[in-house]
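user: can you give me the structure for this one chain? tokens are fine.
assistant: on it. calling the predictor now.
[tool input]
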Amino acid sequence: MPNQNLQILNQSLNTDNYDFFEVMEQVTAYRWNPEAYSYTAEPRPPVKICYKNGPGGIKIPYPCPGGQEQGAPKGRYEKTLFSFEYPEFKAATCVTGWTWVPCPTWSNPGRTCKQEIKLPCTQTRKSRFRVYAEATYPETLEEAVKREIERCHLIAAGLAANVVYGAATASSVVGPQATMTAAIGSIPAALQVYLKSFLECLEGLNISDALRRQIKGDIKHATNKISDWRVSNAGLIPLFLP
């Protein structure tokens, strides 16, 4: 049964398989520490998040079928600032075929048995890394206020995206790991730009200070596996039949 406690932002959305997504995300949040006067990383446990595609690339929270959603805010907007797909590789032992080998017995000295052929191989899978801005807010806010929060979020995310993109695509950055390191390293600066724009924009909302303080902005990064391991390279041995 869907989680009845999770508020659905748009009841008219259909739930076909092409628009609905369920992912486990490993996230890291960055928070402002006024005592240290710097941003500090806060690793978070993996969370199960279900969402549907909304207008402009915004991901809209949606009840996860068959179980309760964990850790997803009631009101949440997302915007990807930077992302790319990259291959991962690992060494393994793979079954590449089979052949017949002698396995004689006293009664049948010419007996043969089927045996798998196992060889060293390389396996690969595809992953997706992304940095994204997230805005959360009380679900009880009026729809007009939510639209203004979304507008402020998208403006701020656009400014932050320039910071992350510039760092991740610099000419000195070569290879997927270096790209991820550069993108993650730019998050504190991007968050500073994002929050400055986002919070200034929120000042114009006609809501109480108590509600305004419940509207949060953050920048996170996550890596998702988008394919399973498969053999990319293995030795070829012809099959011998008796």
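assistant: here you go. The two ends are 56 Å apart (CA to CA). Residues 52 and 123 are 32 Å apart (CA to CA).
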